[in-house]
């Protein structure tokens, strides 16, 4: 694990309290009003979890999470009267949601969660006290609460002290916490990436000992945590934690497998470390909100993470002591698709990531020999709507310490982007079509719809790719010549 970045942690609990008061003041009126309504109905209500933690870190939460002694049907009655709208999709977990103006709240009955060893779904049991509810949460920094409506701070497990120290520690023993919900082990990695916190040694040991327990968790829940980790400010911290504890071996085995691979330059550079560096560098190349790849960008980050996973399967020792990974981009794209499907990612994300993995080596031929305009067109056409991400992945993939080589590769890619821009301006490259459409082809050849029209269209498209715009007259002449050759 990397050393803890102490600069990211606040200096003291007292400073944290001052910060939290300023943030909580922003949504206190509505929270207090809601607390008063629950109290009037004879129930307890407390602001809990992420909103409390984030307030101490100086961040206001858009969505507010509450815990209550009320049962879901009682909560629903209160929220129906209080809010503009309400919903109960989380009823099976004791959660009712509502909106009041700009405020979005979710109120959950005090509860405990545990896994049946034979089930992938957590069991839910309602509790009776706030302290009991907090004791069953994942980490002490998420086990702080603010009782409403009187704004009493509740911190039975010194979450504030852990927040100040930048440490992730479980309220109960780590073994009990992770047995109750094994997904908490992945949450530790996610929070390490989001908050740049360290994991308590006892929790780290339990994660390592219990790594195989993550198998009981559904793929959908694992995917959700992985996505949050990858979109965090420091994914590398979380990925290293998953690998170090053996959890990655269960949920993303392709990642630790990279530790066994030597790179193609035979410099004993660990491809695992190279991959993490590529993730870091890809993040640095994300654009602002108005740019072509606004960060955080999940597709780019996943592609950076998976771009070399085909190397272990394609590693070959060459005469003279060299190492090769021929076609690892082809194998890697297939492996990436298989893993993302297993993690229940959507089809669009899978297609985008696998396209990038498949194409990430294409540029290296450009640095070695000049490309024709046709080759540039095919590069753009094959990348399609992933071109801007491919630009960034290709640049991020250069992790060499050889400054001359790095400068040469950067200059070559600068040149390629200039050529792409010039061709795009000249030819509207992002929408390449033959010079004649299907109706014009049928008119020139005097034929009706059928397979031959498609063949003619593909012939003209090939000419368009090779030679650029032909113009209608030349295209007709080429079409007639091709047609005569077919007969």
What are the defining features of this structure?
487 residues, alpha+beta, two-stranded antiparallel ribbon, 54% helix, elongated
Account of the 3D structure:
It contains 24 helices and 13 strands. Helix 7 packs antiparallel against helix 10, helix 16 packs antiparallel against helix 17 (347-359) and helix 19 packs across helix 21. The chain has a seven-stranded mixed β-sheet with strand order 3-4-5-2-1-8-9. The chain is 54% helix and 10% strand.
Write the SSE topology:
Blueprint: H1 13-40, E1 45-48, H2 50-56, E2 63-68, H3 72-82, E3 85-87, E4 95-100, E5 103-109, E6 111-115, E7 122-126, H4 130-135, E8 145-148, E9 152-154, H5 159-165, E10 167-168, H6 174-180, H7 183-195, E11 198-199, H8 201-209, H9 219-230, H10 235-245, H11 248-251, H12 254-257, H13 271-284, H14 298-306, H15 311-314, E12 316-317, E13 323-324, H16 328-342, H17 347-359, H18 364-368, H19 373-383, H20 387-396, H21 403-427, H22 438-445, H23 451-467, H24 472-486
Parallel strand pairs: 2-5, 10-11
Antiparallel strand pairs: 1-2, 1-8, 3-4, 4-5, 6-7, 8-9, 12-13
Helix pairs in contact: 1-2, 7-9, 7-10, 13-14, 13-20, 14-17, 14-20, 16-17, 19-21
TL;DR?
The chain is of the alpha+beta class. It contains 24 helices and 13 strands. The strands form 4 sheets. It has a 7-stranded mixed β-sheet. Strands 6-7 form a two-stranded antiparallel ribbon.
Poorly predicted segments:
1-10
* Structural class computed from helices and strand pairing: alpha+beta
Query: What oligomeric arrangement do these chains adopt?
Result: single chain
Give the strand line-up of the largest sheet: 3-4-5-2-1-8-9
Could you give the distance between the termini? 69 Å
Instruction: Please tally the helical runs, counting DSSP H or I stretches of 4 or more residues.
Output: 24
On the 0-100 scale, what is the average pLDDT?
88
Global geometry: elongated
Percentage of residues in DSSP E strands: 5-15%
Radius of gyration: 28 Å
């Amino acid at each position: 694990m990397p050393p803890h970045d102490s600069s990211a942690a606040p200096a003291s609990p007292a400073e944290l309290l001052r910060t939290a008061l300023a943030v909580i003041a922003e949504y206190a009126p509505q929270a207090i009003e809601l607390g008063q309504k629950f109290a009037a109905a004879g129930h307890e209500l407390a602001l809990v979890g992420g909103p409390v933690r984030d307030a101490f870190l100086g961040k206001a939460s858009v969505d507010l999470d509450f815990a209550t002694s009320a049962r879901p049907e009682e909560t629903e009655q209160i929220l129906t009267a209080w809010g503009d709208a309400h919903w109960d999709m989380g009823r099976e977990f004791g959660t009712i949601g509502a909106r009041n103006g700009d405020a979005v709240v979710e109120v959950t009955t005090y509860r405990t969660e545990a896994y049946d060893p034979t089930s992938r779904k957590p069991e839910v049991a309602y509790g009776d006290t706030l302290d009991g509810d907090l004791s069953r949460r994942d980490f002490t920094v998420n086990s702080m609460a603010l009782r409403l409506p009187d704004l009493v701070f509740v911190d039975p497990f010194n979450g504030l002290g852990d927040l100040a120290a930048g440490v992730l520690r479980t309220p109960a023993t780590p073994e009990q916490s992770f047995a109750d919900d094994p997904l908490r082990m992945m949450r530790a990695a996610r929070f390490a990436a989001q908050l740049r916190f360290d994991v308590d040694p006892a929790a780290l040991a339990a994660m390592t000992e219990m790594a195989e327990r993550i198998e009981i968790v559904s793929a959908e829940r694992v995917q959700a945590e992985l996505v949050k980790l990858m979109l965090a400010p420091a994914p590398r911290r979380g990925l290293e934690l998953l690998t170090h504890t053996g959890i990655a071996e269960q949920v993303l085995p392709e990642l630790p497998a990279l530790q066994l691979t030597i790179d193609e330059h035979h410099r004993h550079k660990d491809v695992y470390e190279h991959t993490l560096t590529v993730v870091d560098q890809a993040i640095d190349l994300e654009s602002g909100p108005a740019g072509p790849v606004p960060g955080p960008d999940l597709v780019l980050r996943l592609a950076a993470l998976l771009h070399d996973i085909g190397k272990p399967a394609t590693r070959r020792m060459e005469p003279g002591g060299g190492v090769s990974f021929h076609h690892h981009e082809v194998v890697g794209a297939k492996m990436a698709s298989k893993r993302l499907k297993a993690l229940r990612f959507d089809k669009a994300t899978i297609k985008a990531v696998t396209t990038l993995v498949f194409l990430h080596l294409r540029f290296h031929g450009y640095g070695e020999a000049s490309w024709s305009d046709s080759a540039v067109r095919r590069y753009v056409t094959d990348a399609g709507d992933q071109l801007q991400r491919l630009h960034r992945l290709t640049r991020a993939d250069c992790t060499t310490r050889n400054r001359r080589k790095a400068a040469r590769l950067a200059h070559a890619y600068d040149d390629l982007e200039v050529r792409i821009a010039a061709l795009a301006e000249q030819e509207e490259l992002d929408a390449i079509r033959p010079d004649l459409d299907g109706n014009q082809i049928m008119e020139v050849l005097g034929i009706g719809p059928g397979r031959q029209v498609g063949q003619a269209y593909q012939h003209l498209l090939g000419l368009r790719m090779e030679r650029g715009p032909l113009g209608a007259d030349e295209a007709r002449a080429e079409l007639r010549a091709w047609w005569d050759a077919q007969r």
